[in-house]
Design goal:
Blueprint: H1 7-11, E1 17-22, H2 25-33, H3 36-42, E2 45-49, H4 50-53, H5 57-63, E3 71-74, H6 88-95, E4 104-108, H7 116-124, E5 129-135, H8 142-154, E6 159-165, H9 169-180, E7 186-192, H10 196-206, E8 210-215, E9 224-225, H11 226-234
Parallel strand pairs: 1-2, 1-8, 2-3, 3-4, 4-5, 5-6, 6-7, 8-9
Helix pairs in contact: 9-10
């Protein structure tokens, strides 16, 4: 697959990147119908939620023949908003057949130890791994947020994504603190809920690398349509 940038350059980007989440077949078909210029205008990275698409790998591959937009592959654990199987082997079976298409893959921090085999296969293929942490009810204490970033490093991952529900302005302030603090890994942060849309702009300005919007239908409260998010990020 022709790729516009290398995985290394993607994680070293000095500007915030807009990630377009593809969470259903209609969104995938829309994305596949666009030409290369339209895809580049839509988003910087496209996330394939394999757990929600529930398509055979061969069908996904066929839909994306000739694609040059960087792809992030995700097979989310159900405890963190996913529709994939709970067992690590089942989610690995979604990710591994498509590693050659991936610029990045996402594995929950909770699954990093059980999915070391997939992480090593990704590394061998030159595909960095994002370790993710989600809380759909609240924003945990500072110690938990920093612990997520530190654990990602200990688990041998390449970047960390933290997404939490923002109940108050103070919650947003704590995500801003996490994002602005020095870390050895690139950190992406975002809020969900009524403060979600505001947070995605503020946190991108603070240094969040991967900033998620939706293609087609939103799959998380507080997301922007990705085309609009990309426009806004360019003005930061």
């Amino acid at each position: 697959m022709a790729q516009l940038v290398s995985s290394k350059n993607l994680l070293m980007s000095t500007r915030p990147l807009a990630v377009g989440v593809i969470s259903d077949v209609a969104a995938l078909e829309h994305f596949a119908s666009l030409n290369a210029d339209a895809r580049a205008a839509l988003c910087d990275v496209a996330e394939l939620r394999l757990d929600m698409l529930k398509m055979p790998a061969a069908d996904v591959r066929a839909k994306l023949a000739g694609n040059a937009t960087p792809l992030l592959l995700t097979a989310r654990h159900p405890a963190e908003g996913g529709q994939g199987p709970e067992d690590a082997a089942g989610r690995a079976a979604m990710l591994e057949p498509l590693l050659d298409l991936a610029m990045l893959i996402d594995i929950e921090l909770r699954s990093a130890m059980q999915m070391q085999g997939t992480i090593q296969k990704a590394r061998s293929a030159g595909v960095p791994v994002v370790g993710s942490f989600h809380d759909f009810q609240a924003t945990p204490a500072d110690e938990v947020l920093e612990g997520a970033a530190n654990f990602g490093q200990q688990a041998g991952l390449d970047a960390v994504k933290v997404a939490t529900y923002l109940n108050t302005q103070e919650d947003l302030s704590r995500l801003m603190k996490l994002t602005g603090s020095p870390h050895r890994l690139r950190v992406s942060t975002m809020g969900m809920g009524p403060w979600g849309r505001v947070s995605r702009l503020v946190l991108a300005k603070c240094g969040s690398l991967l900033n998620y919007g939706f293609i087609g239908t939103s799959n998380a409260p507080g997301q922007w349509p990705v085309a609009r998010l990309k426009e806004l990020l360019a003005d930061l």
